[in-house]
Amino acid sequence: MVKSFNDNYNRNQTAFSLRMRASMDGMHISGAERILSEDKLPSELVSLFNRAINHGIGTPDEIYFSVEEIKEDILFAGSLPISTILTEGSEDSRRKTKELLKLHNISEKTISKAFNDISKGASPDSKNMRGAIVIDIDTGERLEPDPYRGVRVSRMDICEEAEDTLSIEMKRIDTEGLRVKEALILATKVSMAGTVAELCWSDNPDYTTGYVASKRYGYVRFPDLKKKGDIKGGRAFFFKGQVSDIYSYINFLQKRPVLIERVTQGFRPCTWEEFLSRTRRDEI
Ligand code: WAQ
Ligand code: MG
Questions:
Q1: Binding site membership of 153 for ligand 1 (Cβ less than 6 Å)
Q2: Which ligand is nearest to the CA of 30?
Q3: How confident is the model at residue 8 (pLDDT cuts 50, 70, 90)?
Q4: pTM, 2 dp
Q5: Which residues neighbour 86 within 8 Å (Cβ) at sequence distance 6 or greater?
Q6: 209 lines ligand 1 (CB under 6 A)
């Protein structure tokens, strides 16, 4: 994200999608997505290579890079606002995460299914998936065409200036880390696709904060959503609509270029009750 487009004056430059994914013994361990101009490609390739080989989980035995010219129009967007809920351990976090999902009119059965699948490793062979589960909010049915791989969101990034603003904003609200920035960019794009809500926690055993994100409630973080040492993680996109719409939905997630150019103000960590009263106030 060091890169990208310096807003208005070089919007006409050709943009490239740069992707990296690394695996070890067939298990996905690291990936990244960038949108950037040609002059930034060489340095970013090197930095993503370093990132892949220095990944905490292990040294990859395969690293793939792809560079594609972006021919579609880029959608410029504002980020979702960040909130962080103060909780008392993983059970409390899970309970509140589920409550927030219920506020999106997602059935309890569907919520439990998403939690159970991610907790046990959501691919049919109980490994972490490279992409996300897509789950029908009413039936709880999984809709991703390839249940081993899932749907991988691609072609999203943040403009340089917006990234600087985001760093300042994150400091203001006591939040830090590249992981948060990348997840926020992804979650913003996922919300723009019409996703009812997204549920996510990392597959990194040391990173236990997860989130629920949606247009309606923003990017809502829950510390300790999983226990330290747990290597299972993943994402679920809660989908509402005709099953026939699923292909254009997935196409948007995989192909439509989205660049964050504005940062929406977020909130300092607060209790669940404070969060609820704030969101209710906003709805009036
Ligand atoms: N598209 C779809 N699913 C993805 C993608 C993608 N581009 N990248 C990762 N996933 C899925 C995949 O199943 C991974 O195993 C899982 O998500 C977790 O990925 O606010 O770091 O990169 O403190 O480990 C969230 C909280 C961090 C950040 C999420 O995810 C915060 C994180 P990871
Ligand atoms: Mg990871």
A1: yes
A2: 2
A3: very low
A4: 0.94
A5: 223, 269, 270, 271, 272
A6: yes
